[in-house]
Structures are given as structure tokens and as C-alpha cells.
Amino acid sequence: MSAPAPPRPRTPDDPPAARASAPTPPWWRSLLAPVGSGVSVLLAGAAVGSVVQGGAWFGYALAAVAVVVLVGTLLLRTKPWLVAPGQLVALLLLVTPLFTGSAVFAVVPGPDAFGELGTLLSGAGDQIHTGIPPVPASPEILLLLTLAFGVLTIAVFGIAVTAESPAAAGVPLLCVFAVPTALDEQLLPWWSAVAAAAGFGVLLLVRGERLRQLPGGAAITALAVVGALLLGSAATMVGTAGRFDAGASGGADGSIGLNPFTSLRGQLNRPEPRDLFSVDGLEQPTYMRALTLQRYVPQQGWVAGRPLPGVGLAGPLPPSTSGPSTEATAQVRNLGFRDYWLPLFGDPVSVNGPSATDWSYDAAGGIAYANRPQQEDQWTERLRLPTPSADALRAASGRSGVDPSYLDTSGVDNRVTAIARQVTASAPTPFDKAMALNEYFTGPNSQFTYNLQTAPGAGGDALVEFLTRGRTGYCEQFASAMAVMLRTVGVPARVAVGFTAGQQGPDGRTISTSDAHAWVEAWFPGYGWQTFDPTPLTDGRTVEPQYVQQARAEAGGANGQDAQEAPPPPPAPDSAAPTPGAAPTPEPAPGEDAAPEPVARSSGVLPVVLAVALALVVIALVLAGPTVLRRRQTRRRTGLARAGGAGAAGAAWAEILAVSRDHGVAARRGDTVRTTAERMITGHELEGRGRDSLVELGRQVEASWYGGRLPEPGMLDPLVADVRSAITARGVPLGSRLVPPSVRPSGDDDAASRSGVTGVLLGAWDRVRRLVRSRLPGRTAPAENADETPATGQAPASDDGASRSGSHRETPAR
């Protein structure tokens, strides 16, 4: 090797070493990438608006994203390895006070808070599996969305900001579309594709070192948004059926679905009612039934089960009632209803219009159903409207012909039974019991009031609360309570869900979301299921059958109303507990085993959600780990180089070698500093300032190692900054950004030539092996800064000239 030239005096023609440090970028540039990651998540998440009612969900999503971004930005400046775990803890501290009432110190979750969160998440699962989009923004759904947006932001932040790989962060952003496409068969609205394209563009553009590319990048992103707009208007790619809905009010948000009470709440709480049906030919107002609820589950309420196997909807239909009736024909035009259920009036005789292969009719339940949500444009129904008299229903006796499951009261609180028996104490027949309970809720002396804003009950205790203290609710509470109470006094009962008769206009009746309703149907031998409505509506929408009007007219006067006084609740505090020796739960009725089992509301879902969140955090840590290690190396080396003195030259040169290796040009074993510098100049096509700075840095390294001339403070870091900027200007491969090859210490030639995951694993093994060997007797621990000195035995013993007694030779690169 040729001996290096001695250090020459610095001249005005040597600007790289004499130049002052590059100006520090403005502080706000460091915030662009974190803020951009949050904005991209919110834009991509705009698709959620097509499957969740209202805009309340966005506020919760915004709060989750803001907290995660803020915590991540703060931790990134101090302990990068704590970013993902810290963000997860912050997210948990956010949802605890928002969705629970038992937090420790108002924000810290305890066992009770975890139980509440688990119950809400379990309820969210029920609503997702049984609801029809757009689902109401219930607390369960809002909690799920808050956690989902928070965890997604953690993943995107880890990949785009911590690991500096914004392009790869587009993969978790695709997860946003998994939720709406899973909930809705219809394709997503066009604006969801536009927002997602804009979000990904923001993710790529909003980076401090790329601001000079902002005009061109913004133009490309704008073209992508236009392309997404055109694609969204014509294509059928996102979703499972149908096409993109270009209307502002798309979506079958009038559906009942499989979680009917949740849907009822959403429809009745809509800011603006939406028309669902236009009905002609039906002069007598009557309720429009969508489905009936047979099963009452303690702690959960009435649940929808799978219908019994039925007959095809085409042709004559088996009757579900008997006795006197009138016939009518109704022409129904569908204005926006899409569901598993086809709403029908009264007792249908025949239905023409819907597809005969898609729809079936269950006479026992009185419902028409399909295997998947559908929207029929119109249909014509011939129907019977039962007209039994009050006396005829009083005379009906016996229980033959009814499924015993309609009398099931398993798990009903004893206080409910006591109230029902007290209300019906003077009622001799099943019909009189039904009327007594109906008047208990709707009669002149009733202590119950109708209020649309009342929160729904959540089980047996809520039912007791409604009957004894609250006494305020809407159709869900009233129908649920009366049906349960009828069963406790021996009258078969079920809950029907559908719509009231709507509003009569010059062109027929119009039924809207504001007409969504629930009522009670009681069974009488020889007559079948008859309607009772215990909800005290005051807007004239209640339809009173002939037998109800007759019974009220017969009762009349004060004597008829005395029995309707609300009785005080039984004082026994222990009556809520099941009595010893109570009858076991009856076996399911024939056909009931086909119904899906109710999901128990427990905290068992929370561990699963936390496990998924933890898995995502671990993935983010794994992806960001190599980048965090590389940043630590960079900060340590640049700090040593900036300080000057012993070790500065080695640290500066080690950092440049690492930058070059990360960008595809690795130093070869045995190459000298000058040879390596020439190799980097050629490999990276350096010229101008970058090339001059690299040459000067090589001179400074040689002068420090073999000339005894230690760099002064601030001399080397501008050179390192210039060379790094020149090398990185050409971009970095995605694989090298996620797993920088330089994070693995150099080993033998085979190991040194490996990169990616294999290189990281080999590097970790090398570190463990060296650590173990250094602890063995007779072994010498490796130098602390071994990676900052040449790798071969030709390196000097120190930077202070201790090895200068040897011949001056060109220093190997590593």
C-alpha cells in the first residue's frame, strides 16, 4: 500500500471542513410526518361513515388519532422504543373515562373498568353480527371504532414515522376497508376511494426532507384522486355486491336486521325521518310486521332467532290466525328498505312480486325472510285482518296448538312476576289479563311515560328498574315488559317488530323511519296471535284493534280503572335471587335449536381485543426496531464526531460507512479509506459538494488515525451531514428502510454480505456470542466502540497517536 500524504494546511479552497454546520430545519418540519400519519388514517377511515349512522363516530376517531400521534411524537424525541407501548397505554387511558364509570383516579382502568369495556365490546360484536348497516352509533360501536382507529394509528405511526417507511404504511391503511366491506354487501360510496387516495398521498408527501418535492408530489396525488373518483363512479370493485352509490343518502338505514331494538333506536333517533314504504289500497290502518321475537334471555332481553323452515313466498300461504276477519289488498312500493325480512300486514294470504326463490314464509312466526339482506322494489299482498270480539277472546281457553317456548320465563326476576300477578289479580281470563297489563302501561292512571331519549335496558335488572323506578321508555321497554309479564301469568306472548300504519296522504300511506315500532302479540286458542300495544304514544300512531276498544268501553267508569293503579314494588329485597327448588330451565321447543345461541355479555372479548392490539404493537415494534437501533447509532456517532478529539474520526467514518451500506454500496474487507471513498463516489454517483466532503472526511480520518491530528469540535459533523445528504438524495430501498443492513455488526464475508431479516438475526447471534465469550474466564471484553474503529488488525490502537510508531500506511476502511 502507498503511504498517505501528510495532512496539508487548510486553505480557502477547502470549504467542506471549514463550513459551518448546515442550518437547523424549522421545528415544525419534524411534526409533518406524525401529523401526516394521523391525517392519512382519518381520510382512509372516511369509509366508516357509510356503515355507521351520524357523525358522532368521527369525534371519537379524531380523539384517538390525536392522542396516539401526540404521545408518539413526544416519545419519539426521547425513547423511540417506547413509542408503540406508550401509545397503547395512552389509548387505554383515553377510552376508560369515555366509556366506563369505574376508573381509578378517573382515567386508570381497574378490574371493574375492564369488565365494562369487555361488556361493551361483546355488545359491539353482537351488533356487527346481527345489524344491518348503517348501524346506529351506540356506545358499543363507538368504543370499537375508537380502539380500531387508535390501534391503526399506532401501526401507521410505527411504520411511517418511526421506521420512516411511509409507502409500507399503506398496507395497514387497507384494513380500514375491511370493516365496511364486511358489514355491507353494497359497494362503498365513491368518496371513500377518493379520501383513501388523498390520505395515502398525504402520507407520502408530508415529510420534512421531501418538501422540495411537494409541488410535483401534490400534482401526482391530485391525479390519483381524480382517478379514484372516476373509478369509484364506474367500477364495482370494493364490496361484495351492487355498485358504488353516488347518492348522498345511500344505505338501507331503515332496516330492522337481526338486532331489532338497536335498529329501532337508530331509526327513531334520526335527525330527519326517511320514507321507507308507500302503501296503496289499505284503508284500515294496521301494523306492518317485519319479524317476531320468541326468546327472552336474562341479562340481554329479547333476541332474534333463526326462523323455522318455511314455504316459498309464491302461491297461497298457510294462515297464522283463525276466526272472523276482513280481507284487503295492499300494494307496497319500497322507497329505501333492505333487510332479511319482508314487512307484511296482518295475516298474509299471498304475496306477489318478490323473488320466489329468495324469500320464504314462516307461518308460526308470521314472517317472510331471506338468507341475506335484499331490497324488493314493490309487492302486492292479499291479507286477512282478524276481527274477533272481546267476548270471543275471553271465551278462548286452553293452550293446545301453541309452542311451549312462548311461555318460557326462565331467569325472569321474581319482582317482575310479583308485579304482573298484582296487576292481573282481578282478571279472570287470559284476555282480561292482557287488557289489565295493557291498561297498566297506557291507561289514564298509568304512572308510565313515553320518552324517545330514554336509554335502553340491558337485562333483567333493567326490566325491574323500568317497572319500579324509571317508568319511562319507548316501544322497546314497553313491549319487552308486557310480553314478559304476560308469560309470568300464563299467557303465551311474543314481541313483534316493524312499523305503525304511517301517515295517510292523498296518494296513500307513507311509512317512514319514525314509524318504526315494537308491540306485543298474545296467543288465544282458536284465534291465534292477536295484537296489543302497551306503548303510550301520544301522536295518534297507535292502532287499537276492535277487541281492545270493546274491552275499554265495557270497563268504563272508575271501577274499571281502579285495577290499573300502579302497585308498589314488593319490598322483599332478596326476591331478585332465584328461589330454592325453582323449576329447571325447560328444554328448547322443536325448531328452537336452529336459532343461534345468544352471546353472553362478559369481559371475555376484552382479552381477545387486547391480544390483537398487543400483536399489532409487537408487529410495529418489530418493524420499527431496526430503524430505532439505526437511529441510536447515528445519534451516538454524530455526537462523538461533533465533540471532536479522540474517537471523533472513527465515529464519523463508521457513520458514513453505515449510510453507504444502507443505500447499497458496502465497503469491502481490506479496502483502505481512500479506496472505499472512491468506491462510494462511483457507486452513489457523488459529485460537487458531496464528493468534496467525502474526500475531505477521508483526509481527516487518516490524519487522526496516523497523523496524530485530532479533529476540533464541530469540524467533522458538517462533512458527515454533506455526505449523508448526497448519498440519501437518490432515495432508499423499502427493504433497507425497514431493516437497515448496517444494524448488524460486520462479521465474516458471508455474513457481511447478507442483509434483511437474515442479516439482523445473524447480527443478533453475533452480539450474543461475543457477550458470552467476553464473560468467560480468560476472555477480554470487546472494545466499547469496536464498531467505530477499523475492523481488521491494521487499525491503530487508539486515536491519540499511540500506534504511530508503526509505518505509515494507508488505513483499511474497516
TrEMBL record:
<keyword id="KW-0378">Hydrolase</keyword>
<feature type="transmembrane region" description="Helical">
    <location>
        <begin position="57"/>
        <end position="76"/>
    </location>
</feature>
<protein>
    <submittedName>
        <fullName>Transglutaminase-like putative cysteine protease</fullName>
    </submittedName>
</protein>
<feature type="region of interest" description="Disordered">
    <location>
        <begin position="553"/>
        <end position="599"/>
    </location>
</feature>
<feature type="transmembrane region" description="Helical">
    <location>
        <begin position="141"/>
        <end position="160"/>
    </location>
</feature>
<dbReference type="GO" id="GO:0008233">
    <property type="term" value="F:peptidase activity"/>
</dbReference>
<feature type="region of interest" description="Disordered">
    <location>
        <begin position="1"/>
        <end position="23"/>
    </location>
</feature>
<feature type="transmembrane region" description="Helical">
    <location>
        <begin position="189"/>
        <end position="206"/>
    </location>
</feature>
<feature type="domain" description="Transglutaminase-like">
    <location>
        <begin position="467"/>
        <end position="536"/>
    </location>
</feature>
<feature type="transmembrane region" description="Helical">
    <location>
        <begin position="218"/>
        <end position="239"/>
    </location>
</feature>
<feature type="transmembrane region" description="Helical">
    <location>
        <begin position="88"/>
        <end position="108"/>
    </location>
</feature>
<keyword id="KW-0645">Protease</keyword>
<keyword id="KW-0472">Membrane</keyword>
<feature type="region of interest" description="Disordered">
    <location>
        <begin position="775"/>
        <end position="814"/>
    </location>
</feature>
<dbReference type="InterPro" id="IPR021878">
    <property type="entry name" value="TgpA_N"/>
</dbReference>
<dbReference type="InterPro" id="IPR002931">
    <property type="entry name" value="Transglutaminase-like"/>
</dbReference>
<feature type="transmembrane region" description="Helical">
    <location>
        <begin position="605"/>
        <end position="629"/>
    </location>
</feature>
<feature type="transmembrane region" description="Helical">
    <location>
        <begin position="167"/>
        <end position="183"/>
    </location>
</feature>
<dbReference type="Pfam" id="PF11992">
    <property type="entry name" value="TgpA_N"/>
</dbReference>
<dbReference type="GO" id="GO:0006508">
    <property type="term" value="P:proteolysis"/>
</dbReference>
<dbReference type="InterPro" id="IPR052901">
    <property type="entry name" value="Bact_TGase-like"/>
</dbReference>
<feature type="transmembrane region" description="Helical">
    <location>
        <begin position="31"/>
        <end position="51"/>
    </location>
</feature>
<keyword id="KW-0812">Transmembrane</keyword>
<dbReference type="Pfam" id="PF01841">
    <property type="entry name" value="Transglut_core"/>
</dbReference>
<dbReference type="InterPro" id="IPR038765">
    <property type="entry name" value="Papain-like_cys_pep_sf"/>
</dbReference>
<keyword id="KW-1133">Transmembrane helix</keyword>
<feature type="region of interest" description="Disordered">
    <location>
        <begin position="734"/>
        <end position="755"/>
    </location>
</feature>
